[in-house]
């Protein structure tokens, strides 16, 4: 029987991020994917021009329908959009002991805001404490931690502050890093809360010259979810997810006029 993963996220009409990226990634890694759609976005490679959020109860009902019948070995969330949807997801997940990857999607690659400003505190109070792993990029980590990340020391401090909110691990992705921040500027920083200490390591990043980088955050968190669903520990799941994303970036072929997506199905 295949392992299963549930994605709680928005739909990307361009097919490169969100629910579509998650399902392609799950399938490529031989994990059966299910979904709870939080929003329908209007987007293509040029950016997001609009979106409609789902009613919070409809989001929680989708999650309940999947978990009560099919079940899941891991769950991830991406775009949630509002404080009310965050609260609904938290209520639904809180009484279940699930492996949970929280990708705190706040801003699209083109700059469109995908999370209401008043929802960030709800994210910190209600969802992050439930997470196994939180996977913010640098701007998202700054919003959550309140730390301006202008050096590697500040990125470590931001990760520590996020870890103090209760997740098992934090991965601050390095895609928004700047060379003056130090030798690890573009690497992903991983902190794992072990019983007797905090384990810190980096996922080295190979810089790939491509405009096909749409959906990288969704793809990484989906791959991480898939490997966790298969029973891997956080350390090996993070390494394998990074390798999957790197290969997907290398295999991508341009489509559209803007930021095209990675090739999620390169291995099929």
Show the helix and strand layout:
Elements lengths: L3 E9 L5 H11 L3 E13 L2 E7 L2 H14 L4 E4 L5 H12 L5 E3 L17 H8 L5 E2 L3 H8 L6 H12 L5 E4 L15 E6 L4 E6 L12 H14 L4 H18 L17
Parallel strand pairs: 1-2, 1-4, 4-5, 5-6, 6-7
Antiparallel strand pairs: 2-3, 7-8, 8-9
Helix pairs in contact: 1-7, 2-3, 3-4, 5-6, 7-8
Keywords:
single chain, about 270 residues, alpha/beta, UDP-N-acetylmuramoyl-L-alanine:D-glutamate ligase, nine-stranded mixed sheet
Describe the structure.
The mean pLDDT is 93. The chain has helices at residues 18-28, 56-69, 83-94, 120-127, 138-145, 152-163, 216-229, 234-251; strands at 4-12, 32-44, 47-53, 74-77, 100-102, 133-134, 169-172, 188-193, 198-203. Helix 2 (56-69) runs parallel beside helix 3 (83-94) and helix 5 packs across helix 6. The two termini are 19 Å apart. The protein is globular, with a radius of gyration of 17 Å. It has a single domain (4-251), classed as Ribokinase (UDP-N-acetylmuramoyl-L-alanine:D-glutamate ligase, 3-Layer(aba) Sandwich). Helix 1 links the parallel strand 1 (4-12) and strand 2. It has 268 residues and is an alpha/beta fold. It has a 9-stranded mixed beta sheet with strand order 3-2-1-4-5-6-7-8-9, sandwiched between helices.
